[in-house]
Amino acid sequence: MPAAPGGPRLLLRRLREAMAEPVSAQARLDRIVVLIAANVVAEVCSVYVLRDDNTLELFATEGLNREAVHLTRMRADEGLVGLIAKTAEPLALSDAQQHPAFSYRPETGEESFHAFLGVPLLRAGNTLGVLTVQNKTYRVYSEEEIEALQTTAMVLSEMIASGELQALAPDAGTAARRAVSVRGTVLAEGIGLGHVVLHEPRIVVKRLIAENSERETARLETAIENVRSAIDDLVERGDKLGTAESREVLETVRMFAHDKGWLRRMREAVGSGLTAEAAVERVQSDNRARMMRQSDPYLRDRLHDLDDLTNRLLRELVGQEAVGLAGSIPENAILVARSMGPAALLDYEPARLRGLVLEEGGPTSHVAIVARALGIPAVSEVENASALCDSADAIIVDAVAGEVHVRPGPEIEAAYAEMVRLRARRQEQYRALRDVPAVTRDGVRIGLNLNAGLLVDLTHLNETGAEGVGLFRTELQFMVAQRMPSAAEQQALYRAVLTASGDRPVTIRTLDIGGDKILPYMPKLEEENPALGWRAIRIGLDRPALLRVQLRALLKASDGHPLKIMFPMVATVDEFVRARAIVEREKAHLRRHGYALPADCKLGAMIEVPSLLFQIDEIAREADFLSVGSNDLMQFLFAVDRENRRVAHRFDPLSVAAIRAFRLIAERAEAAGCPVTVCGEIGGRPLDAMALIGMGFRNFSMSPAAIGPVKAMVLSLDAGAVTELIDSEMARGHDGDSLRPALAAFAKAHGVPI
């Protein structure tokens, strides 16, 4: 049987009129199913909505028993309707009763129908319900009818997502508003309760139904050409997409932008009567639905590329710049984003942020470092995070367990509110320890210092009672700037840092860029293994002007005060000697021109390249102090990319191999009388710090939030006893096993809080 004259455009025109009628949501939905049935020449049209208990509920019908509306429910995997909800694919059958999944509810009166057509109600790739039509005769639905039903489904999806249908069945929420709990990786510990702020908000398509399809087609073609041109320009410049994408990703996005199938589907959607932006969103929602259900990780990863391309196209169509809401975020904001750089995070007002949720970014990424510095609970590697949330949704970030709860129920919200109160009381206990010296029970003095990279970090010196700054990362100033900071700007920052620290010592690390630390205004060097490539002190020695400008700014900023300068990524003693010679030349230059030199200038080396383990005696004699960069040291020691989730957790810094490396550093530095500090992440974890004390380390530098828990551990610890434990465990031989279980058991037995 052919479709009614007019096709999808006529149906959309009538739907637009129905949507504008001043009637109740149920009356509007009842009118819509009548219009759809008439357009497709079907005897039945029904709308099923996926509820938050994972059941499909009949919300409206034309042709079935209307008494069954809001009473008929089925499991989300039950029958043909459940099959469509599960696969997110249309299903057209000339005789539905012969399909293996066929089943029916007697109360609906649908047992006499044969032909069946159903399409999913999709939004951002998520299934919200199912729209079906049925006929008693055996018939084949045309491609035009399937297209019309899919187009209509988009309009219904927006009704569901807007909450308009919630009043029809208030006893349970629809799938669009369903509570969701997902897991990720902790970037910065803490718990945050608040409401979603999308860093790059989903473009809200307000105009769904076109008034002039020819004009919409022209708008679509213009937007496609503009986006293609912009991507071509980026590729030609060798630029990067967002904050962390490579040229290869840009090439992939360009390939998608020229994909004929993608373009054809959008043109067809416009031809069916949708606006250009509604067509783009509908095609991407269909793509998301298919790709989210793929088991192939490569295909799932391509979803991000399509999302980015779609967002670019939507922004072009609605005239919206690719910016977030940094200037207007509400109180208790929790940022949700695919990825984010440190500069973007700093655009937001820290006092209003309660948490951060990212799809991409590891614990040692720079946005993680900034989040920890600002005290913002952060969880990353949360799959599909930006599509799971809408702006202003209630959300909880549990950056202790690595969980994110979107639209949580009242019980979960109450439990976390109590957890936050308990953590606040614990923080009060830590604050009470602020002025208590960090001395173990057997009288061993432990130095606790801050890791910092921003001027705002130094406010934590007084709050935590830290003895000083054990690591000030100068690269953050370069990474958040739009251009290379001048010598005067660098000098002003370093002077402000030294002034803010007062009498407390500050160890300033020279520029550590390269690898994963890319400056936005410098061309990216393509390397097979960037972490092992041209970075840190290697750049400084090969481009001495860059290092000299920074060293001169540091020396001038000290203005007669003590100064400690540390060089990163030192792989050989010769590299340190060459860097020290540059410092001496700069000091001589300043002396000739009458500048005040530091009262005391000490130079140190970071131990993060394993080659220094075999030159430890030599570097301990040459350097004034050493600092263990445990993040990179572990990465290189175990050949494990710390940003690669497949392998990042395959080693333990308390394994036998790691402990032997750490003990070697502590013992040889002590023998040479060279002070050594641990400034990597493990020093800020109480159990790991306890083990390091047992190995002989006496100075640590960590994030502000870690000082309280580590000090509480120190005050309860007998350092000699943990040293004896490590000695005995290592003597027994563990064949590479971790000492973590034995150390945890020791802490529990001796009442050491970890």
Automatic annotation (TrEMBL):
Q: What is its main location?
A: cytoplasm
The residue ranges of the GAF domain are 24-170
Top-level EC class, please? transferase
Fetch the SUPFAM superfamilies from UniProt.
Enzyme I of the PEP:sugar phosphotransferase system HPr-binding (sub)domain, GAF domain-like, Phosphoenolpyruvate/pyruvate domain, Phosphohistidine domain
Span-the-membrane segments of this chain are none
Q: Which reaction(s) does the protein catalyse, per the Swiss-Prot or TrEMBL entry? A: L-histidyl-[protein] + phosphoenolpyruvate = N(pros)-phospho-L-histidyl-[protein] + pyruvate
So what EC number does this one have?
A: 2.7.3.9
Q: Which residues form a coiled coil?
A: 210-237
The signal peptide here is: none
One Pfam annotation, family name? PEP-utilizers
Where does the protein end up?
Cytoplasm
> Which Gene Ontology cellular component terms are annotated?
cytoplasm
* Any GO BP annotation: phosphoenolpyruvate-dependent sugar phosphotransferase system
Check the record and name the InterPro entries matching this protein.
GAF (IPR003018), GAF-like_dom_sf (IPR029016), PEP-util_enz_mobile_dom (IPR008279), PEP-utilizing_PTS_enzyme (IPR050499), PEP_util_C (IPR000121), PEP_util_CS (IPR023151), Phosphohistidine_dom_sf (IPR036637), PTS_EI-like (IPR006318)
Q: Which UniProt keywords apply?
A: Coiled coil, Cytoplasm, Kinase, Magnesium, Metal-binding, Phosphotransferase system, Sugar transport, Transferase, Transport
Cofactor names: Mg(2+)
Record-linked PANTHER family: PHOSPHOENOLPYRUVATE-PROTEIN PHOSPHOTRANSFERASE
* Classification via NCBIfam families: PTS_I_fam
What is this protein identified as? phosphoenolpyruvate--protein phosphotransferase
- Give the species this sequence originates from: Methylobacterium hispanicum
Q: Which gene encodes it?
A: ptsP
